[in-house]
From TrEMBL:
Protein name: Uncharacterized protein
Domain of life (superkingdom): Eukaryota
Length: 930
């Protein structure tokens, strides 16, 4: 390690001065040298060595690639050691190497990249997947495989697809493991998931079975049962073996391994039966390489080369394509006139201590040009399209998802950066629009650990004997919702029954105990109760806890089990129908307009009919009365005057239609007023309450106080804290003028329970907030999710309603009787009408009798009959009665009819006389002639 630090320091200090080494090749050299650094005896190294050698052979045999220039390869064994990798890289720099393939280890890549930067030699790794090997820090480093950034994104989508929220990572504690887990943490956070525990394993030979045993024992005590294993093969298989020994490969667990396992399965299959048995049901990722004819031909060739003893994995294909990538880039470099030349590094020449022979290393003058050609490459290799994006990553990243079953494995789907999880090969989806919606994500069925086909829940309660502490408020009012059983820590009430019923529906046992919260003298602050969950005092809270914004920011709530929202409660009074209720259907303006229109229509009809209709003629007084009578009688369709003009009939027809509509509307409105109970309150809702200056009551401990102050802008001085329903009633009855309140603002469940026993108050206006009651748990608690499902089940099967009816359905206010009473019509509702009719009758009779008495006095004064006192009284009575009974001819029609009757009577008597005396008739005729 000291040597590594020393070399890095030597390479990163000093000033640069270029000098030609004299070793300058011609424009098209006979050979170019490249190097390769990897671990020979590793799973990846064994296949990479064969793949690189075959690729170099194929390039040299293909004259169309380098056009006669031979590609020479030198290999170094790094043994996954950063220092040895550094030494190997330095040795390459002494031999005019223009590019280096490798290393396979991310740890070694970090060290060698400093050398590549200093000497400007492109470093192309086919297996270093550490996402922190960035192009900004290491401009001469290029990854020809996929970054773990995409692999961790694929794992995060799998976790989200199965509905898990917490995972545990077991990883190798070096740059490769730590940086990969960091990328996974970011990918999970983007999907509201998280790593609940990170278990680092000492790298390489530093990890013993005992160390892994200690690590997995701690993992077993955690809640999460989804474990991501990101390690090297030797450590990974040891983890599986210990996990099987501890019973962690059974039902309820979910294991996901990164592509280290797929590379072993592909290259060393079949594995020993004990090894396969220890990882049954594991999901594994493998870098996806599309099927092609070239790939199939290379696979056949591979089997012949290895005799079937070594399988072909994805990293062998990437190593093969890396050689071809360098060959194409070198060819472009030479075609563009590039010259392979090297210069001495003045930084190394200035370093004292020449025993290191640093002066032998040279800078590749065309390194930047060659690196540019590599990044611009665009061809089809065994691994698919070889092209790089702006981040220097391979385009179209994709992974196979396989499931270890029995003695083999089965592919259950794919992941691609283009369309997420799918059962279709990624290359078939690239022509479609990118789609990561939940509906489009799909995988085949999985056989999970324990030979189970049921998706693991992903978490359980830890087996460490800890019981959940559930905080419950000690209410002093509305105890139907939550109340403590005296002398115990047990609770009862609507909220408690719902929680117990939901817990009983869970497919696992939940150890919990209720912990009282509050002093028992007043309702506690529910916001403070919620904050104690985040502080770790409580593991959850059960009660009538409203789900509001400031609380959801710090805890997770279950599905609401009761709807809630703020309502305004105020006193009301019944609007008595009264003696003048019949005037209420129309406003005063409406009555005035009706009166004017009745008179106006009567005048219009009189004008149109006056000249041609005898019924609209006569003295002015009579015509005025006719106008009034005609217009008002149309209200009841009782007019008797006929209209003869066309215009008059048209006006009357339209007016009668209007009268019909007015009558119908009046009847309907009056019926509603007389039969439906009318309530009145000076407060119309929260807005009218807000703009007044009257005091407002609220329940102690409720979120209504903060809402009214912060959201509604009501001064705190106007708010009055009330503790019990009795306090509500007293404050409302007193009113603001007597030290009470104008209204009370509280949540719907409390208001409904209060009004069930207080019939003098009503809710005013609409519910002005929408929320509900739920059970609170720490953020990302899986118990909140499972209880939400249980609450929905209670709602669907009717148990939630039965619990509600048990505790909250009782009322002392008889609404049915009130409705029946309001349907009955009382005498007081029509007293005004009877009074008007009675007064009009009385006045008419009074006027009539006054007129009769005046006539009677005139008749008595003109009488000259002298009788005794008794006879005089009798005659006066007879005269009065005769005046009352006498028929008076008021109208010209009546007088005309009487005159005609008299004439008819005279003519008849005269005819009789002529019949008796014909001579007299003749004399009469003669006289007429004369």
């Amino acid at each position: 390690m000291i040597w590594t630090i020393l070399v890095v320091h030597l390479l990163s200090v000093g000033a640069f001065s270029a000098g030609l080494s004299g070793n300058v090749s011609s424009s098209r050299p006979a050979a170019v040298s490249i190097g390769a650094i990897f671990t020979y005896n590793s799973t990846i190294g064994r296949v990479a060595k064969i793949a690189i050698e075959e690729a170099v052979k194929d390039v040299n045999n293909n004259s169309s690639v380098l056009h006669g220039t031979r590609l020479d390869i030198r290999m170094q064994n790094s043994n996954c050691n950063g220092f040895l990798g550094m030494v190997g890289a330095l040795q390459f720099m002494e031999t005019d190497t223009i590019a280096v393939i490798g290393p396979q280890s991310s740890v070694v890549a970090h060290s060698i990249s400093y050398v590549a930067n200093e000497l400007q030699v492109p470093l192309l790794s086919f297996a270093a997947t550490d996402p922190l090997l960035s192009s900004l820090q290491f401009p001469y480093f290029l990854r020809t495989t996929q970054s773990d950034l995409y692999q961790m994104a694929a794992i995060a989508e799998i976790v989200e697809y199965y509905g898990w929220r917490d995972v545990i990572t077991v990883f190798i504690d070096d740059d490769y493991g730590r940086n990969g887990v960091s990328a996974l943490d970011d990918a999970l956070a983007a999907r509201r998931c998280k790593i609940s525990y990170k278990a680092g394993v000492p790298p390489a030979a530093g990890a013993s079975r005992g160390d892994i045993m200690d690590i997995l024992v701690k993992v077993a005590l955690m809640e999460s049962r989804v474990i991501i294993l990101h390690a090297y093969p030797d450590v990974g298989f040891m983890v599986f073996s210990v996990a099987r020994y501890l019973g962690m490969m059974g039902d309820g667990y979910a294991w996901i391994a990164t592509d280290w396992l797929s590379s072993v399965l592909d290259s060393s299959f079949p594995l020993p039966s004990d090894t396969m048995d220890s990882m049954q049901g594991v999901l594994v990722l493998r870098q996806h390489t599309p099927n092609s004819e070239r790939k199939r031909e290379f696979s056949e060739r591979w089997r012949k080369l290895t005799g079937g003893s070594l399988g072909l994995n994805a990293y062998a294909l990437y190593a093969y394509d890396t050689v071809w990538l360098i060959a194409h880039a070198v060819n472009s470099f030479l075609d563009q006139g590039g010259i392979i030349s090297f210069s001495n590094d003045s930084k190394l020449l200035s370093v004292e201590g020449h025993n290191l022979h640093l002066e032998a290393m040279s800078i590749f003058d065309g390194g930047n040009h060659l690196m540019s050609n590599i990044l611009q490459s665009d061809f089809i290799g065994l691994t698919g399209p070889i092209k790089f994006n702006s981040d220097r990553s391979r385009i179209l990243p994709a992974y196979d998802i396989i499931n270890v079953i029995g003695t083999g494995f089965r592919q259950i789907g794919y992941w691609s950066n283009h369309s997420g999880l799918s059962t279709l090969a990624p290359e078939t989806l690239y022509s479609r629009d990118s789609n990561h919606s939940n509906a489009s994500q799909q995988l085949h069925s999985v056989i999970w650990p324990g030979d189970s086909t049921a998706k693991p829940r992903g978490w359980i309660f830890p087996n460490n004997g800890r019981t959940l502490k559930i905080g419950v408020p000690r209410r002093v009012s509305y105890r139907e919702f939550v109340s403590q059983v005296p002398g115990t820590n047990n609770f009862k009430g609507f909220c408690i029954d719902v929680f117990v019923a939901a817990v009983n529906l869970l497919p696992y046992a939940v150890p919990y105990q209720f912990v009282p919260f509050g002093d028992g003298r007043k309702n506690p602050s529910y916001t403070e109760l919620v904050y104690l969950i985040t502080a770790g005092v409580f593991d959850g809270a059960v009660g009538d806890i409203a789900i509001v914004t400031n609380r959801t920011m710090i805890v997770d709530f279950t599905q609401p089990y009761a709807s809630s929202g703020l309502l305004v409660v105020a006193p009301f009074k019944k609007l008595n129908t009264g003696a003048w209720a019949f005037l209420r259907p129309f406003s005063a303006n409406m009555w005035a307009v009706l009166a004017v229109f009745f008179l106006f229509v009567g005048i219009v009809v009189w004008i149109l009919e006056h000249r041609i209709n005898d019924e609209f003629r006569g003295p002015p007084k009579k015509q005025f009365i006719t106008i009034l009578w005609f217009s008002l009688s149309t209200l009841f369709f009782a007019h008797r005057e006929n209209t003869v003009s066309t215009l008059g009939r048209l006006v009357l027809l339209l007016w009668l239609f209007a009268v019909l509509i007015i009558n119908s509307s009046y009847t309907a409105s009056l019926t509603s007023i007389l039969t439906v109970q009318q309530l009145y309150s000076p407060i119309k809702g929260i807005e009218s309450l807000k703009h007044s200056d009257e005091p407002i009551g609220y329940q102690v401990g409720s979120f209504a106080e903060n809402y009214l102050i912060e959201e509604m802008g009501i001064p705190k001085s106007r708010l009055v804290a009330l503790g019990t329903p009795a306090d509500y009633a007293r404050a409302l009855q007193r009113g603001p003028k007597k030290g009470g309140v104008a209204a009370v603002v509280d949540e719907r469940p409390y208001v409904e329970l209060f009004l069930s026993s207080q019939c003098k108050f009503r809710t005013i206006g609409q519910e002005f907030t929408r929320s509900g009651w739920g059970f609170a748990f720490p953020r990302d608690s899986p118990l909140a999710v499972d209880l939400s499902t249980a609450i929905l089940t209670l709602s669907e099967n009717g148990d939630l309603q039965r619990i509600h009816d048990k505790w909250l359905t009782h009322s002392s206010c008889s609404l049915d009787n009130a409705e029946i009473e309001s349907d009955r019509l009382h005498l007081r509702s029509f007293a005004g009408l009877f009074l008007i009719c009675g007064i009009s009758c009385f006045i008419a009779l009074l006027i009539y009798f006054i007129k009769i008495m005046l006539k009677f006095r005139k008749a008595a004064d003109s009488s000259s009959i002298a009788q005794d006192q008794g006879t005089s009284r009798s005659s006066r009575l007879q005269t009065l009665l005769s005046l009352i009974d006498e028929k008076k001819d008021k109208s010209p029609r009546d007088r005309k009819r009487r005159k005609m009757d008299r004439c008819s009577s005279s003519d008849d008597s005269h005819g009789i006389e002529l019949e008796r005396n014909p001579k007299r008739s003749q004399i009469s005729v003669d006289n007429n002639v004369l």
